[in-house]
Amino acid sequence: MRIYMTMEDAIKAIIFFFILAFIFGAYTHFKEKTNPAPEQKIEKIHIGEQYPLAESASNIVINSVEVTQERNELVKADRVLKVNYTLTNKTDEPMENNKSLNVIESSEIGHQPVEYPLITNDPSKVEANSSTTFNDYYTLPDEKQSYQIILENNEYRKTIVEFDI
């Protein structure tokens, strides 16, 4: 069975859809004007301060940030950043260290340093109700720059540790 539409009905349908699109657009514009998105709060913490991680019952402390002489024989780099941090697990179950630190430049562009491949003796997890210290390594450009470690970033809050290296 075929359904045929006259030209007049087709024009009415098109006009109807344009009116619906206009009403929907006006509604979303009005909604954004009356209920603007909350402004993101930027919280800065210092090296050595404890910070609770949102996704689990654990804390992180950035212990130190330094340029290190530790190198991998296979990957050449002039400057390597070493970030030493401690994860505290407050649960009764072991917790994997899948925390990849988000290190970026503090500039407007915010380039992210490349992780430097270095084999360490760091464990892969934090045992129940204990703390473990880890090291992450990043390749840095030659010139001195300001960096941030972003611990949390969502629409409401951004928590960072700032440092110059």
Question: Can you give a write-up of this model?
Answer:
This protein folds into 2 domains: 1-36; 41-164, Immunoglobulin-like. It is built from 1 helix and 11 strands, in the order αβββββββββββ. The protein has one helix at residues 7-34; strands spanning 41-45, 50-53, 58-68, 79-89, 95-96, 102-105, 114-115, 125-126, 130-140, 146-153, 157-164. A 5-stranded antiparallel sheet has the order 2-3-4-9-7, with no helix packed on it. It starts with 6 loop residues before the first helix and ends with a strand.
What is the ordering of alpha helices and beta strands?
A: HEEEEEEEEEEE
Q: What quaternary form is this?
A: single chain
CATH topology of the largest domain: Immunoglobulin-like
Number of strands: 11
Number of helices: 1
Let me know the largest β-sheet: 5 strands, antiparallel
Counting helices, strands and paired strands, the structural category is: alpha+beta
Proportion of residues in helical segments: 10-25%
Tally of separate domains: 2
Rg (CA only): 26 Å
CATH class of the largest domain: Mainly Beta
Give, in spatial order, the strands making up the sheet with the most strands: 2-3-4-9-7
β content, as a range? 35-45%
> What is the mean predicted local confidence, pLDDT?
84
C-alpha end-to-end distance: 74 Å
Shape: elongated
**CATH-derived architecture of the largest domain:** Sandwich
Unreliably modeled segments? none
